[in-house]
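User: Predict the complex with magnesium ion.
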Amino acid sequence: MDIPPEIRKILKTLQKAGYEAHIVGGCVRDLLRGVTPHDWDIATSAVPEEIQAVFDKAGYKTFYENDFGTVSLVTDSEDQALKTIEITPFRVESQYSDKRHPDQVRFAKTLADDLSRRDFTINALALGEKITDLFGGQDDLENKIIRAVGDAQERFREDGLRLMRAVRFAATLSDDSLWTIDGPTRSAIEKNAALLQHISRERIRDELVKILMSPNGAKGIELLRELGLLQFIIPELLEGFGVGQNKHHIYEIYQHNLLSLRYACENGYSLEVRLASLLHDIAKPRTKRGEGSNATFYGHETIGAKMAGQILRRLCFSKKQCDKVTKLVKYHLFYYNVDEVGASSVRRLLKNVGPENIEELLQVRKADRIGSGVPKAEPYKLRHLKYLLEKVVQDPIAPKMLAINGQDIMKLLNIQSGPKVGHILSYLLSQVLSDPKKNKKELLEKETERLGALSDQELQKLANRAKKDVEQVETKRDNMTKQKYWVT
Ligand code: ATP
Ligand code: MG
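Assistant: Here is the predicted structure with magnesium ion placed in the model:
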């Protein structure tokens, strides 16, 4: 197996000093399924003071400052996963009277004790000189099964976060389908779902994010619902369960939300787009008026934006994330028709959503459409919108771009404002467009003096030609933007 030399050396150092040492937890699981671990955990029979003594002597820099007895070692590896390695004494956890944290951490004598406190069989494997597999973790790994170590009920009662972790591992360990949660483990989750109420929102959020960021995000959310966990995380989603829409939709609200999320996950969109895809119709159940094919949902995007904000704040997402998702939900219905919507409304959309969010808004819209079961993604309309969006943010080609302005010209030539100033500006603009290097104040001043000496007639002629040149450049730029989006 592919164990880095840094890790081998640390194991050897402990073993030579007379202690047991094993790689444990998620990294053994990942090694066995052929995935490079993103961190490495080592468990040992040494207690923290002993670990420190061994590694001080071996010349390592060590840190010891947490409640779990973990000592961190600094290596000189360049690899992020290997820069600091955590070494934890074998431990057992006793009593969880608050259902969150063990009341005290006790060190254990044996590896077996340490492995039996771990949550799932696939996470309870150890690798020292050989693999230690006390609970059938290798078979479960082979068969893609999530199974609690020991008595499932007890394990969830000890720590309710394990409810979320079970779903998280089911969702994240494969790219294509969920791993199976073993029968008794599954029913223990269903029976103890309410324990989630005792778990900190941040920890729930972290697991939820991992579920959403996997390609199986939508299946993961559905599994949370099936197991009765979703009601303690985003109960608002359940309001749309079994609720039909109208003649424009073939799916019920909840189903449509999940299908939109599925599209966002399959396409590797950002967390915010995934959240917005899941939540964009969150207010539809509350705004539904009428029944059957003519039902309406007026204002669901505005109320939905508020609800999305509440949900995400409750789950301790950052203000930045809340703001972005709220905007994406609020504007997901933006109206666009090639012939009806002009530059000014596109400009308004851009201002409302923020130019930095526009790409993601288009992604939410796409997820929404595909999630409606409408197979076509309106390619022309969408391309035309993208074209207009780019066009309206382009700086206009105007004298404002010049390193000299009307005031400067008036002062320089000692003249009042009038057509002459405009003509000079037009001419200078065409010159700068054909050679941007000319856009220097000094050069333009010189040119202004030359132009000032021309007759009004001559100057007018120059200016007319210059205006045509500028128009041509503008048309050319527009055509290039059009071509970029295949719009004619
Ligand atoms: P990841 O790939 O997300 O790091 P992981 O399995 O390594 O997954 P960690 O949270 O890093 O998960 O925990 C490391 C190990 O510690 C787990 O594999 C498991 O053995 C144990 N563990 C972590 N959290 C719990 C828990 N809440 N209850 C029981 N054991 C846990
Ligand atoms: Mg880990």
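Residues 399-484 form one domain.
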